[in-house]
Every structure is written in C-alpha cells, then in structure tokens.
Write a structure and sequence with these properties.
- This protein folds into three domains: 164 residues, Rossmann fold, CATH 3.40.50.10140; 102 residues, no CATH class; 111 residues, no CATH class.
- Helix 2 packs antiparallel against helix 7 and helix 4 runs parallel beside helix 5.
- The protein is built from 13 helices and 17 strands.
Length: 411
C-alpha cells in the first residue's frame, strides 16, 4: 500500500469522527426509562446532542434502522446503562455488539462508556464490556453524572450550541407520552368498605292495630329488622312474614309496598298513605341495614359492646380455632391474624371488634371500623369504661385486622 493511500484512509476516518456529535444512550426500556430521562436531559442541558429511544422513538419509525444509523454513522460515543434489568436483554446486547464493532472500526477504544445503574455485579457485565472502566451510579447519581461529563470531555465529544433549547422540549415530550400510556388492567383493592351487592327493590309499611307507644314497644322486640313510625312499621319483609315470625298477637290493618329507589328520594307513592321525606327515608333504611348487620353478627357468634356512639361486635374467646382468622392478602399469600389474646400483665383478654356504618348512594356499602374490647373471662366486657379506655390507648395496634376478619365472617 502506498503512503499516500494510508494518509488518505486516515484522513477519511478523521473526517468521519469529526462529523460525529451524538451521545447515544443504550438501556432497558421501560425498566430504566426514569434514569435515562434524568441523565439524558442533564447532558442535553450541558450542550450535548443526546439520542435515546424515549426521546426520539415516538411511533411509526423503523426501529432498528434508526438505532443502527445513530450508532454506526452519527454517534461520537455510546453510553451503555447496565442494570439487573438490562444485562440480559437481547435489544441491549445487540446495541452493545453494534457499538463495540463501531468503536473498533473507528479505532476508538473509549467509544463505549459503560454505566452501572444498580447493584449488578461487575462479573455479570457483558463480555465485550467487562474490561472497560464502568462509571458507577449505584451509590450517587450526581457523582456518576460528573464522571460521565468528564469522560465525554476526555473523549472529545463536541457540544451543540442549540442543544440546550431542546432539552425541555424532549423531556416534556417523554413525560407526555409516558402519562398517556395508560394500561387497562384489573387490580385488587383492599378497603374497609363491605359492599352491599344488591338492595331489595321494594320496601313495606305495615299499619298495626295498636297505638303508637304499644307499636314501638312491640317492634323493639322483633327479630325482623323493622323501624317504627307512629302506628307504622317499615321493613324489607312483607306483612305476612312479619306477623308470622314476630307478632302473632298484633293485627295488621293495612300494608303498603313501595318502590325503594322512589322511597329514598321522598316520592309519595300512595294516596292516602304514609308520606316520608327524603332525609327521614334515608335514615330509616340505614336503620334497617344496621339491624340486619347486627342480626348477621349475632348469628356468627359475635357479642355486642356499647361504645360511646355505636355498637361494636367482638370475637369471644374460643369462637374460632386458635382464636385467629386466616385470609389471603393482596399478593395472594395466605396469612393469619389473632383475634383474641391474653395480657397476663394486665390480667385481661383483648378482643378484636368491629363497628359497621351503612352508607347509601350509587354504591351502597358498610364502612367497617376496627375496635378492641377487653374482658376478664373472654366473654364479659369490663364494667369500667374508664379502665377500658385507658387500656385501649396503650394496647394493641389492630388496623391491619379488618380485611382478614371481614373475609372470615363472609366465608
């Protein structure tokens, strides 16, 4: 080969390198997108012309052709982000092979700059990069950024005067695309709301053949949920069922069946007949739901306890095997919660309890609130409210019990 030919080839390589201005960032998408957004925008703000798929590839491009052109023909250097997410990804490995080959062709050993993002062991680096000095971001991103900028200066990567003006636009474009990339998927919600799957379509008023005081006294002993109003009783059950189950000695003079949704908005449905305003109607139905809940709790063996403004229901000693409840958590793991325990120091049993508040609306539900009750024998609550309050302040943290217990009762 002639000397002139060698000089000509060397000059051609120098000209090609002189035209290269791009800082190409190779990484795992989408796992390392947040880091690349952070690093890329800071390099752009420093004046570098940065290429990263999260900035440039919006949609419709010929993916690998664009990447190949960027690495082979335009990149002054390739920053390869190595992490536990990226080091085995085929796309990242292909980009590394392309970058290493381009560096050899350009006779530029520092063409590839490895960046270690997390605790990926150095021995797990791809073979082509294992001998290169990697910049470590695992401990401190700011220190890593400073070292990357030093490496770019040392490699002679040119800066673009107009690059700073595009930094914000590229970052904003990435964020807008990211926020718009919603995925419809089912998720499990853990809540202290216990949904009422379906309310009855109708509600019933019964007018009894006694005065209002006698009616109220009699209805208070009924097992069927029912709310007194003068000589009337409001219930989800019909008149025949009420008399059969609870009031064989009480006569029903008249029965009215109302459409429940209309009743709840205060719409009068019979003339003559009872008229109930919207607020009163909602309170009466909520009362019925509370009674139904209490019947349910009682049927499962729970015992009542009167708190200052509500009735709670607690788990007595021995109701459940081992005094604990098993349930499946949001991750699908089987877990358990103890619902009754003993404090030898205080000489009391503590019991998980719950209060329930009915809530009507588009999605009717009970709001369940965890409580704790103390007994001396596992069944009889303490007589002293003051002592119970003092124990409650210093005792168990029970917030996590509610979901498992509700599931247990409902099974």
């Amino acid at each position: 080969m002639k000397s002139d030919d060698v000089q000509s080839d060397t000059a051609a390589v120098d000209d090609v390198q002189a035209e290269r201005k791009l800082v190409f960032i190779s990484h795992a998408n989408p796992e390392d997108n947040e880091f690349v957004s952070w690093l890329g925008t800071r390099l752009i703000a420093a004046g570098y012309d940065v290429w990263a798929d999260i900035f440039q590839l919006v949609g419709g491009e010929t993916f690998w052709r664009d990447i190949g052109v960027a690495i082979k023909d335009e990149a002054a250097t390739v920053i390869t982000v190595l992490s536990r997410s990226s080091y085995r990804k085929d796309g990242v490995l292909d980009e590394i092979a392309m970058a290493v080959g381009t560096g050899r062709k350009l006779a530029k050993p520092s063409f590839v700059i490895p960046v270690r993002l997390d605790d990926l062991p150095f021995v797990d680096f791809p073979e082509q990069l294992i001998r290169l000095n990697a910049i470590d971001f695992a401990a401190n991103w700011a220190d890593g950024l400073a070292r990357v900028q030093e490496a770019l200066v040392k490699a002679g990567v040119p800066k673009e005067n107009s690059a700073q003006t595009s930094a914000f636009d590229q970052w904003r474009g990435f964020r807008m695309r990211q926020s718009g990339a919603t995925v419809e998927t089912a998720e499990q919600l853990s809540s202290n709301w216990l949904r009422i799957i379906e309310l009855p379509q109708h509600i019933n008023f019964c007018r009894f053949g006694s005065d209002s005081k006698a009616v109220a006294k009699a209805l208070s002993s009924f097992s069927t949920p029912i709310v007194p109003r003068d000589r009337l009783g409001l219930s989800f059950a019909n008149a025949a069922s009420i008399v059969l189950d609870d009031g064989p000695s009480m006569s029903v003079e008249h029965a009215y069946e109302f459409d429940l949704p209309k009743f709840l908005v205060g719409e009068r449905q019979t003339v003559p007949g009872p008229e109930v305003r919207r607020g009163d109607a909602s309170n009466m139905v909520t009362n019925l739901l509370r009674q139904a809940w209490e019947n349910f709790a009682r049927s499962r063996g729970l015992l009542p306890y009167e708190f200052s403004n509500s009735t709670g229901w607690f788990v007595p000693l021995g109701l459940m095997d081992g005094n604990k409840s098993t349930y499946v958590d949001a991750a699908g793991k089987s877990r358990w919660k103890r619902l009754v325990g003993r404090s030898e120091k205080r000489q009391v049993y503590w019991h998980f309890a719950v209060t329930a508040y009915a809530n009507l609306g588009d999605d009717p539900h009970f709001v369940l609130r965890p409580q704790v009750v103390f007994t001396t024998d596992g069944n009889s609550p303490l007589d002293s409210k003051a002592r119970a309050a003092s124990l409650r302040r210093s005792f168990a943290k029970i917030g996590g019990m509610i979901v498992g217990t509700a599931c247990c009762w409902h099974s």
